[in-house]
Design a protein that fits this description.
single chain; mainly alpha; MetI-like fold; two-stranded antiparallel ribbon; 4 strands; about 0% strand; elongated
Length: about 325
């Protein structure tokens, strides 16, 4: 007989039933698929994208650590010796104290060091110009989509006129008026690229503007600036991230083209394009390394960025998801 107040244990003919298992505590966050985790998982499915990301990380590290890992400072005239000019890869300097792994250019600069420092300038110009163009195009695109009417028509007609001209032509005209310099070429690249972001963000914003959460925010009489930048903008970011990734590569390529033509950066701040230009006249004489190795560095940079951008496009675009 059970004591008063005790619940009789459940039993069968074969004996008492086993006690129920204790509930497992639910640990918050374990097993939950967040958008960021899903993005990382789907991005990692592509080995080419991982290769591109790893390659770009190595290039970025080489550019950031250029003063520490470069055998020579190519901007320090005291470290340059004209007797070491145009030495082939693996050759030693005249004093025998230094080995030039990738050879030297016509000014006696170590090509490996020049490439590291050139990567700093090319990546810096490309990323800075992309961020500036992104900010300008994003603001104008949101204004066009949210205001509509004549404001939308005016901004979009300017965008159409901008995109109807070749990018290199606009950059050449601006640099001819502004002159050489890092700030000048950044201004030229921003003026060339902002239209891409304006059109992209306007298209995404027009789709999002017709959704219920924007109507609810409008009914609550929220300020238009808050609706545009706090509610509309976050949902327009995925296509902008893809466009910005691709446009970084386009900006680096355009800067290299302008520097190759002699209208980009000054000779005292050689980027990859200027390094390629310096050795172009020596290609037929057999001194290929002056242009070849900077060209390879530029190619690897562009390919790595494009591989990452292509996979981001597939991951962030729901229509392309497998």
């Amino acid at each position: 007989m059970n004591p008063p107040g005790d619940t009789p244990a459940a039993s069968t003919e074969d004996g008492p039933l086993p006690a129920p298992a204790a509930p497992v505590p639910d640990i918050a966050g374990v097993g939950e698929e967040t958008p960021l985790r899903r993005l990382v998982t789907e991005f990692a499915e592509s080995r080419l994208a991982l290769f591109g990301l790893t390659l770009f990380a190595l290039i970025l590290a080489a550019a950031a650590l250029a003063p520490l890992i470069s055998p020579q400072n190519p901007y320090d005239l005291a470290q340059l010796d004209i007797l070491d000019s145009r030495l082939e890869p693996g050759a030693r300097s005249e004093d025998g104290k230094r080995v030039y792994l990738l050879g030297t250019d016509d000014q006696g600069r170590d090509m490996l060091s020049a490439i590291f420092y050139g990567l700093r300038i090319s990546l810096g110009v490309g990323v800075t110009a992309t961020l500036g163009a992104l900010a300008l195009g994003l603001a104008l695109g949101l204004v066009a989509a949210f205001a509509g009417g004549r404001v939308d028509s005016l901004i979009m007609r300017i965008v159409d006129i901008q995109l109807s001209f070749p990018a290199i032509l606009i950059a050449l005209i601006l640099l001819a008026m502004l002159g050489q310099g890092v700030d000048k070429i950044i201004i030229a690249l921003v003026a060339v690229q902002w239209a891409y972001y304006a059109r992209t963000v306007r298209s995404a914003a027009l789709v999002e503007r017709s959704k219920e959460y924007i109507e609810a925010a409008t009914c609550l009489a929220l300020p238009p600036s808050r609706i545009a930048f706090r509610h509309l903008l976050p949902n327009c970011l995925p296509p902008l991230i893809v466009v910005a990734t691709v446009q970084v590569a386009a900006a680096i390529t355009l800067e290299a083209t302008l520097s190759f033509l002699g209208l980009g950066l000054p000779i005292t701040e050689p980027s990859l394009g200027l390094l390629i230009s310096n050795g172009f006249s020596y290609l037929l004489s057999g001194k290929y390394w002056i242009s070849f190795f900077p060209g390879v560095a530029l190619l690897l940079t562009i390919v790595s960025i494009n591989l990452v951008g292509d996979q981001l496009r597939d991951v962030l675009n729901p229509r392309l998801q497998r």
